[in-house]
Design brief:
With 274 residues, the chain is of the alpha/beta class. Helix content is 40%, strand content 19%. The strands form two sheets. Strands 1-2-3-4-5-6-7-10 form an eight-stranded parallel β-barrel, surrounded by five helices. A two-stranded antiparallel ribbon has the order 8-9.
């Protein structure tokens, strides 16, 4: 089978720093990467134009694509808190501007924990902020993508249908859906297919209310053959970016994840029901 995807690595998970993490990403055989820009030397205020050009050149010289930046400053509040947004919106705009400079098409974040009632102030604040930032991102040919997890795919879809069709999308993380719900991480792909611009390759298990455990790829509840089959059926052909948040052997787990995905992408995937 000819796989339509490229394999990426979330370089911060390697715990080597951005530059050495990018070098290790190339060494491990990935084709691109995602990097946090919310703190440290990659925070926009700490990364002026010359450093951005150097970082972009480093990736290009290694044959790597900068698949996405992570501009997630608070995954719980996200965009639901008006007081927090007064500080957060300008920072996210800087992350979007940095994505332009680095040639990254996607900035990922979390919308935040959306209440069930769309009339709640938190929901409306998130909606207002996503409209504002979506328009800002779209004008710069960047997509600001909410990561799946805190809410079921159909709830996220209902929210996304209320914002502009350009500028706001989804970073599909199947493990978050398994760990936080558990929600349907296979069926959710078909629901959100028009919004998926980037994905995480992560695994984990649900342990109970507000309890979960992230695990190496292939050892948790994500059914990767069917998940990839669903992505293919949805027409997604972007990055599968490996994220490993825990464990004592991050580099080893990520190296094994690269091999796991390459083997899977080279195999025959199951047919999805019509």
């Amino acid at each position: 089978m000819s796989a339509p995807w490229k394999i990426g690595i979330f370089v911060d998970c390697l715990k080597l720093g951005p530059v050495e993490g990018v070098r290790k990403t190339a060494e491990l055989g990935a084709q691109g990467f995602q990097v946090y820009v919310t703190h440290g030397e990659m925070f926009p205020d700490n990364c002026p134009a010359p450093k951005r050009r150097e970082f972009r050149k480093l990736a290009a010289d290694l044959g790597l694509t900068i698949a996405a930046l992570c501009g997630d400053f608070d995954w719980v509040r996200g965009f639901t808190d008006a007081a927090f947004n007064a500080v957060n919106i300008p920072r996210v705009k800087k992350c979007i501007d940095m994505a332009v400079d680095l040639g990254a098409p996607v900035v990922t974040m979390h919308i935040g924990h959306l209440p069930d009632d769309p009339g709640r102030p938190e929901y409306q604040e998130a909606l207002r902020t996503c409209v504002l930032l979506g328009e800002y991102a779209a004008a710069r040919d960047v997509v600001l993508c909410s990561e799946t997890g805190p809410e079921a795919p159909d709830k996220l879809l209902a929210f996304l249908r209320q914002v502009p069709p350009k500028g706001i999308g989804v970073n599909y993380d199947p493990a978050n859906l398994v760990m936080c719900g558990p929600f349907d991480h296979i069926g959710g792909v078909a629901l959100l297919k028009d919004y998926i611009h980037h994905t995480h390759a992560k695994d984990g298990i649900h342990l109970g209310p507000k309890a979960w455990k992230e695990l190496p790829l292939g050892q948790g509840g994500v059914v990767f053959p069917y998940y990839l089959a669903a992505l293919k059926a949805a027409g997604y052909s972007g990055f599968l970016t490996i994220e490993r948040e825990g464990g004592g052997d991050r580099v080893g787990d990520i190296a094994r994840a690269v091999a796991f995905l390459k083997d899977l992408c080279a195999s025959d995937l199951p047919a999805m029901p019509a």
